[in-house]
Amino acid sequence: MRILLIVILGGLLPAGASLAQDIDAGRKVAGICRTCHGLDGFARIPIAPHIGGEPAAYIETQLRAFRDGSREHEMMTVVASSLSDQQIADAAAWYNHFDVTATLPAGENPDDAPELCSTCHGSNGISEMPDVPNLAGETNIYLETQLKAFRNGKRNHDIMSPIATELDDKGMQTAADWYSAITINITDPTKPN
Ligand code: HEC
Ligand code: HEC
């Protein structure tokens, strides 16, 4: 299973060389993002996801998807349409450079994490793979909206679409409840606390 996953995920990495990323330039781009995602990627509004510490490849893929219309959202479509490839690469480097840690609610056992999801998203909602997003601490509404979008075809992905198609509303709720109950902490490793 593990090897299969690596092959699948490996196949999804974008072809072609990626642009050199500049964290400082990304901080400037993040000025456009901060009202919703915070400068540190800890979301300031419930419908926006936390993006601090997300894999850079994932952030880039999503910004490109919003820009080319394959993922749609009234706010992000507008934001992404104004970004150059370089700004996308820099913003991804900026938000990726944060450390994110996740804590399960007291008394929860990691073994009770939704089994179908934890292989890729971790039992604590922190991904260990470059193209897989963190789910820890995202709101219930965000998680369920995304799962439904994969299920109804509004959002498409080789791996997530078939998984979401297998889930009923109850299954989505259970997974969303698990990951939204996790507390996250985002810190800047380049700054002493
Ligand atoms: C006006 C608010 C707003 C601004 C400004 C904004 N975003 Fe977003 N962003 C959102 C919302 C809302 C979503 C969730 C979209 C959805 O439900 O599909 C989102 C989603 C994303 C995602 C997808 C994350 C995931 O987990 O799939 C990324 C990446 C992202 N934004 C990056 C950025 C960057 C980088 C900027 C600045 C250049 C930015 N956003 C500016 C509101 C905003
Ligand atoms: C084989 C690996 C794999 C498994 C198993 C998996 N996912 Fe995913 N998941 C992904 C990848 C890759 C993405 C990114 C999709 C994209 O690029 O649009 C993703 C995206 C998501 C998103 C969107 C997150 C965001 O920030 O927008 C949600 C929600 C999600 N998965 C929930 C689940 C749930 C719930 C399960 C279990 C029922 C699950 N996933 C199982 C690989 C996986």
From TrEMBL:
It holds the Pfam family Cytochrom_C. Residues 21-99, 102-183 form the Cytochrome c domain. InterPro entries: Cyt_c-like_dom (IPR009056), Cyt_c-like_dom_sf (IPR036909), Cytochrome_c_Oxidase_Subunit (IPR050597). It comes from the Bacteria. Residues 1-20 form the signal peptide. Keywords: Electron transport, Heme, Iron, Metal-binding, Signal, Transport. PANTHER family: CBB3-TYPE CYTOCHROME C OXIDASE SUBUNIT FIXP, CYTOCHROME C4. This is Cytochrome C. It comes from Thalassospira xiamenensis.
